[in-house]
């Protein structure tokens, strides 16, 4: 006689296989894995560390270019004394 299927769909053999630790090293590695995947990857953690740095860098570079092209040096007290 074949075993009756579970009403809830719970299979204890599949549960035991899923809960077995496949690695022989760190027993907590499976539990710590979520910290380094998905939204918690290294890139995603540091992506928002400096929120305005990109805009500020472009604005400052634009200011330096405009200063060199548009604002001429009028001279002043830095002229040579001859």
Structure notes:
The chain has 82 residues and is mainly α. The protein has a domain at 27-70. It is 43% helix and 0% strand. It is rod-shaped and about 105 Å long. The termini are far apart. Belongs to the complex I NDUFB3 subunit family. It is found in: Mitochondrion inner membrane. Its main location: mitochondrion.
- Total strands: the figure is 0
* Low-pLDDT sequence parts: none
Radius of gyration: 32 Å
Please summarize the sheet with the most strands: none
Structural class: mainly alpha
- Separation, N- and C-terminal Cα atoms: 114 Å
> Strand percentage, roughly?
under 5%
User: Which whole number gives the mean pLDDT?
Assistant: 80
User: SSE order, as H and E?
Assistant: HHHH
Helix content: 40-55%
Shape: rod-shaped
Q: How many helical stretches? A: 4
GO cellular component, one term: mitochondrial inner membrane
Membrane topology: Single-pass membrane protein
Pfam families: NDUF_B12
Keywords: Electron transport, Membrane, Mitochondrion, Mitochondrion inner membrane, Respiratory chain, Transmembrane, Transmembrane helix, Transport
Short description:
With 82 residues, this protein is mostly helical.
Give a quick set of tags describing it.
82 residues, mainly alpha, 4 helices, 43% helix, rod-shaped
Give the topology, please:
Blueprint (H helix, E strand, L loop, with lengths): L11 H8 L9 H4 L9 H5 L6 H18 L12
């Amino acid at each position: 006689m074949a075993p009756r299927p579970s009403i809830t769909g719970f299979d204890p053999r599949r549960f035991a296989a899923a809960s077995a630790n496949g690695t022989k090293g760190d027993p907590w590695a499976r539990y710590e894995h979520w910290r380094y995947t998905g939204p918690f990857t290294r890139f995603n953690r540091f992506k928002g560390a400096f929120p305005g740095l990109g805009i500020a860098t472009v604005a400052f570079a634009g200011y330096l270019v405009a200063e060199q092209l548009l604002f001429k040096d009028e001279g002043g007290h830095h002229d040579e004394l001859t």
